[in-house]
Amino acid sequence: MQIYTRTGDHGTTRIIGGKSVYKNSAQVEAYGTVDELNSLLGMLASHPDCWSELQAEIMGIQQLLFDCGNDLATPEHSAKYDYRLSGDHVTWLESRIDEYSPIPPAIESFILPGGSSLAALIHFARTVTRRAERCIVSLQQEQSINMACLKFVNRLSDYFFALARLANHHAGVEDVLYERSGKVFHNDLTKDRIPK
């Protein structure tokens, strides 16, 4: 397969079916951000603290994200191309969330992204997932889409939240709880140490 084609030299690219669209269109932003997320999951799966079962699960999600990108690159009102993601994939993600959520201790506070290095990377994936979701919503406002993609990406951010907590629990590291800035500065910092 030829790596470069020169067909995008004028700021356009071809979606499924051969239609040419601008590279900053809502459609390309949507599947491009999903592709960015997929690359981040490659980093996550290769993290040295990622245990083998989780690695396999993350790589499975990468496959599903590729399907999601395919569906988002499918032209509107096209009966010629079948969507790949379905409600079954959303249900599967929900089952993973339901399994992981009860394992760490319950919390009644917001948490900061962090803890172990693996959990911090998972939180990064969570925030990129949220951005992908916003891009998909923007596309949805312009044309019809496979709604399973939007639901899947919405659940995926919840999955990463549960997974980040599990990763910290697995590593024996406590989640970093959010405290209002005033409380932290007044209780723990002297005036001359407050950042300017």
Highlighted features:
196 residues, mainly alpha, Hypothetical Protein Ta1238, Chain: A, two-stranded antiparallel ribbon, 6 helices, 57% helix, CblAdoTrfase-like_sf, PduO-typ
Q: Can you tell me the CATH topology?
A: Hypothetical Protein Ta1238, Chain: A
For the record, the count of structural domains works out to 1
CATH class group: Mainly Alpha
CATH architecture name = Up-down Bundle
Largest sheet at a glance?
2 strands, antiparallel
State the share of residues found in helices, binned by percent: 55-70%
Order of helices and strands: EEHHHEHHEH
CATH superfamily: Cobalamin adenosyltransferase-like
For the biggest β-sheet, the strand order reads 1-2
Give the class from helix and strand content and strand pairing: mainly alpha
Low confidence ranges: none
Radius of gyration: 20 Å
Distance between the termini: 54 Å
What is the molecular shape? elongated
Helix segment count?
Answer: 6
Strand portion, in percent? Answer: 5-15%
Total beta strands? 4
Average pLDDT confidence is 90
Q: How would you describe what is shown here?
A:
- This protein is mainly alpha-helical.
- It has a single domain, classed as Hypothetical Protein Ta1238, Chain: A (Up-down Bundle), CATH 1.20.1200.10.
- 57% of the residues lie in helices and 5% in strands.
- The chain is built from six helices and four strands.
- The chain has helices spanning 26-45, 52-72, 87-100, 117-140, 147-171, 181-188; strands spanning 12-14, 20-22, 111-112, 176-177.
- It has a two-stranded antiparallel sheet. A two-stranded antiparallel sheet has the order 3-4.
- A hairpin with a 5-residue loop joins strand 1 (12-14) and strand 2 (20-22).
- The longest helix has 25 residues, at 147-171.
